[in-house]
From TrEMBL:
InterPro entries: Class_I_gatase-like, PRibForGlyAmidine_synth_PurQ. The keyword Hydrolase applies. This is Phosphoribosylformylglycinamidine synthase subunit PurQ. It comes from Methanofervidicoccus abyssi. Pathway: Purine metabolism; IMP biosynthesis via de novo pathway; 5-amino-1-(5-phospho-D-ribosyl)imidazole from N(2)-formyl-N(1)-(5-phospho-D-ribosyl)glycinamide: step 1/2. The lineage of its organism: Archaea, Methanobacteriati, Methanobacteriota, Methanomada group, Methanococci. Part of the phosphoribosylformylglycinamidine synthase complex involved in the purines biosynthetic pathway. Catalyzes the ATP-dependent conversion of formylglycinamide ribonucleotide (FGAR) and glutamine to yield formylglycinamidine ribonucleotide (FGAM) and glutamate. The FGAM synthase complex is composed of three subunits. PurQ produces an ammonia molecule by converting glutamine to glutamate. PurL transfers the ammonia molecule to FGAR to form FGAM in an ATP-dependent manner. It is found in: Cytoplasm. Part of the FGAM synthase complex composed of 1 PurL, 1 PurQ and 2 PurS subunits.
């Protein structure tokens, strides 16, 4: 299974993502933002980093580069596309799902381990988890606060577009467990079809025991299984 790992100027998580894809049994290939045609790939991951120095808004410039055309085609064809952290910011700026990511409520860059509750396990990336399962992985971002207006939020719930929420160890959705002030503790969302998932936490940093968690590896394994 050939997975495109998209690299922009300032991406810094591409090697980690490639390693996780390999560990999961896939064949990753780094593709630059200048490439328009992704038709030979079975899926894509947009890794994290600081594309274009987060100028303007994190992800805003990346979302206006040629590779977005290829990614949009993939999303429309129903191929699995995952955006992690800066990748999620780029994906939302490109309109692959609804809502926006803005500055953390405390205006600080936050780097810590968090718990997530799986709200939707029907996507190609979450089919390996149980609904309501609590998983653990790190976040590292300055602009990770998810926001959408009330009507948009209700629509997202109705269409099952909320994939992950920040929770405590027991799976409770509390204010304390919300690291960045995201509305309703939302940590990850998807498009209506579910084939494009955009999340702020880093599954590739939770893909090996030595890193402290293997909960993230299942996201890549699930992706590859959905392609078979
Ligand atoms: N780890 C990342 O991808 C960082 C995301 C983005 N540059 C931010 O700080 O919000």
């Amino acid at each position: 299974m050939n997975i495109a790992v998209i690299k922009f100027l300032g991406t810094n998580c591409e090697e980690d993502v490639c390693r996780s894809i390999r560990l999961a049994g896939g064949n990753p290939q780094i593709v630059w933002f200048t490439e328009r045609d992704l038709s030979k790939f079975d899926g894509a991951v947009i890794p994290g980093g600081f594309s274009y120095g987060d100028y303007l808004r994190a992800g805003a410039i990346g979302a206006r580069t040629p590779v977005i055309e290829g990614l949009r085609n993939m999303v429309e064809m129903g191929k699995p596309v995952l955006g992690i952290c800066n990748g999620a910011q780029i994906g939302l700026e490109a309109g692959f799902s609804k809502g926006a990511l803005t500055n953390n409520i405390n205006w600080r860059f936050i780097c810590k381990w968090v718990y997530l509750r799986v709200e939707n396990n029907k996507t190609p990336f979450t089919r390996g988890y149980k609904k309501g399962e609590v998983i653990r992985m790190p976040i590292a971002h300055g602009e990770g606060r998810f926001y959408i207006d009330e009507d948009g939020l209700q629509e997202m719930y109705k269409k099952k577009m909320i994939v992950f929420k920040y929770c405590n160890e027991d799976g409770e959705i509390t204010e304390d467990a919300n690291p960045n002030g995201s509305i309703d503790n939302i940590a990850g969302v998807c498009n209506e079809k579910g084939n494009c998932v955009l999340l702020m936490p880093h599954p590739e940093r939770a893909s090996e025991k030595i890193l402290g968690s293997t909960d993230g590896l299942l996201m890549f394994k699930s992706m590859l299984q959905s392609i078979q």
